[in-house]
Amino acid sequence: QVQLVESGGGLVQAGGSLRLSCAASGRTFSSYAMGWFRQAPGKEREFVGAIKWSGSSTYYADSVKGRFTISRDNAKNTVYLQMNSLKPEDTAVYYCAAKYYSGSYFYTAVREYNYWGQGTQVTVSS
Predict the structure, then answer these.
(1) Terminus of the chain with fewer CB atoms < 10 Å: N or C?
(2) CA angle centred on 25, ends 23 and 27, rounded to 5°
(3) Would the pLDDT of 27 be above 90?
């Protein structure tokens, strides 16, 4: 079992930056692949990016590539989402998710992740 708690959301102007954190409980955090998703009002939850269990590699949706960066600190049981050059269309509730997996594949579908945080709101004003 893994419990996830996101933090760091807020209101920011277009072009600004935010860093989200996702703190995980449990002793085997390093065995989990982590993903970030977001959900805007009236839309389905969508994949933002993912990071391997080791932190050695990441994968991003085209919409955020070059602007967002995912990292993790396994010693602190925390994964981060650094968001730069934010746009109004980035406004959404952001969720982190965990999947017990230590392979090399990147999972991008909501249904493939086993554990979810409660989400944190990010609002980008124009």
Answers:
(1) N
(2) 125
(3) no
